[in-house]
Amino acid sequence: MGTNLFTNYGEAVAMLLFVIGFGNLMLQRNLIKKIIGLNIMDTAVYLFLAEKGYISGRVAPIIVDGVQDVGAYINPVPSGLVLTGIVVSVSVSALMLSLTIRLYQRYHTLDLDEISLRLKREGL
Amino acid sequence: MREQMEFVQNFPCFSIMLCMFAGIISSALKGKAAKTVNRAVLCINIVMSAAVLLFTVETGEFYVYVMGRFPAPWGNELRVGVLEAGMALFFCIIMLLSLTGGRHKLAQEVEEGKHGLYYILTDLMLSSLLALIYTNDLFTAYVFVEINTISACGLIMIRQNGRTIEAAVRYMIMSLLGSGLFLVGLCMLYDMTGHLLMSNIKEQVTALHLLSLEGSYHVPLLVTIAIISVGLAIKSALFPFHAWLPDAYGYSTVSSAAILSSLVSKGYIFLLFKIIYRVIGFDVFRDSKIINVLFVFGLMGMVFGSLSAIKENDVRRMIAFSSVAQIGYIYMGIGLGTQMGMVASVFHVLSHAATKSLLFIAAIGLTDVSGGSRNFIELTGSGYRNRMAGATFTVGALSMVGVPMFSGFISKLLFAQAAVQNDAKMLPTLIVLGISTILNAIYFMKTVIRIYTPVEDSQYPTVTWRDGKRYAVTLVCFIVLNVILGVCSQPIVDLIGAGLNMFA
Hints:
Chain A has about 120 residues and is mainly alpha-helical. Chain A has helices spanning about 1-5, 10-25, 30-55, 75-105, 110-120. Chain A has one domain: Helix Hairpins (Orthogonal Bundle).
């Protein structure tokens, strides 16, 4: 167990980052910090995929001088997944930021609990 | 499998593409034209899904639609069986009815310039729902989960006030936590199995499960199942993760509330069904301990959702809290771990979707004749002021409580039958089912009695069905749908059973 953890330290770091991001997204009161947490969480997943997808000593499957042995290349799918994931995460972050701007213009605070409190007082 | 493709078999792909292109085209159209496009797309989708359903029932087997002619382990696939086609048909019908029923409210509550935007969002929503239903690729499912989240967020905040924006932010945060977990779960699954297509993953998972019995791969498999299930449970607002729900359903425009409660959360639950059967395998899922966790939270949701609903003084929020309880029922059915329990859960997905959208649409008719107030005091006697909406609300309430003739009764019956088959979980299930039914009866009957309590010289106007013909027709359609589910349940249950067998 312990030796596996050491050889796979990349994955371990990725999971640690994921948990940090997850915790921030869930527990922070400040909306900007929440969004930062979201980005850390997503990036951790990409690190995990990149770490899993790369085998040291092999190259991306771009054929330059004839087909070599299959063993010379890495699987390109994880990199593709990372790209797709980045697109998704960018659009979600943009949406979250625009919502944050809306709330800030209305209530002049970034604290979500404070906003909820004020909404209750407004009794809307 | 047949060699020659029939034309009908293209329809699932067409319907997803059609919705997407409708969304793109609508962005260049004015509100009214976008509405027409949206309605046309929904009608075409209903016809196409019905054709696919007939086709699959006739052949009695599922078929795989290969996208772009890349064969199995590399390409992307759709997989269509009875259950998928039936669910697509049902979702399209509910969406059409919800949009039609809430249209007059949309005109009042949303700025004129944003109507086009609303229909773009619904088109996108429908395309993502259909894709979630049909896709056979786990990563595609993830992408469409995110599209679904984004469009749902748009539907919540299209009516701009502080409450809805706050609700949208809370919804986004919860959803993102859920999809983050789902994403990391599927990456782990991909890492362990090397596949993204559901059927291919399942072969590998079965092999891994055999290994796990000998000791290796036990923890990774368990963690992956746990993460994926919890992620989807968060997204579909299972009990402890429901904090965003009452605000999001209670303050958004009524069509959005109906669509969110009856379709969006169900889309994720349907994805979970697919993952249980097609990715992880029913036996492996049952043998993991996760199923008990879902069971317990389902039971807690059934009780606490209803308790919160009893305390609520606002009719829309009360219906929203009732959703929490009903989602609890569905997860309880999954947690029973029997085929019967799954059938009951799928039936309850249908029944709850039909009833909850009916309740939201009927409630808006009642609040409209009470000066727009949603407080129970103001609602007194509104059943007389708008008889059509009052009658419909009563039907919905009776169905939720579980009175025979309506769909809710059948799902309760199926849950009870399923519970009897599982010795260990029989007692808690039946007890909580009983408690929850009583609680349901308390808050729904309270509302029904309230709306039929006569008041002297009410200051609010009385409307008849002639004042809103389209609205009245929608309500009648909802009632008919509910009664059909309640009366002709046997063929539907048989179809669900057949569909689940095709699932694996």
